[in-house]
Amino acid sequence: MLTETLRRHGPALALAALLGTSGVLHLRRPAVFRPLVPRILGDPDPWVLGSGVAELACAAALVAPPTRRLGGWASAALLVGVFPGNVTMAVRSRTDARGWAGKPAVAWGRLPLQVPLVAWAVSVARRGG
């Protein structure tokens, strides 16, 4: 019974936990995320706040089986949408004095991780509630 429950709900709940944690971090420590916003988008604060709220909304949708399919697709879209921020972080990682300087391995290493995260969200969406 527990194994079946984990098999059925575990992937969605784990993704919800990941997105929920990230969403809270966006709201509690926005300075960490400001350097990820491409300069062309202007003031990073609305983008950081908006992405944090979006992550929390996706997490909430993933928890409830009736909204899980929508939450999975929304999570996949969000993860694709924030990819330019991850690229920006990687490009700036050697020179940016706002936190990522000297950490290019971490910044560049995050980029390929986006692919399995999007695949995970799509898998949750396809499985639905």
UniProtKB/TrEMBL annotation:
Cellular component, GO annotation = membrane
Tell me how this protein sits in the membrane. Multi-pass membrane protein
**Keyword vocabulary terms for this entry:** Membrane, Transmembrane, Transmembrane helix
Gene Ontology terms: biological process: methylamine metabolic process
The record ties this protein, via InterPro entries, to: Methylamine_util_MauE
Q: What is its main location?
A: membrane
Locate the Methylamine utilisation protein MauE domain: which residues? 12-82
Where is the protein localized?
Membrane
Q: Which PANTHER family match?
A: DOXX FAMILY MEMBRANE PROTEIN, MEMBRANE PROTEIN-RELATED
Q: What is this protein called?
A: Membrane protein
Species of provenance? Cellulomonas terrae
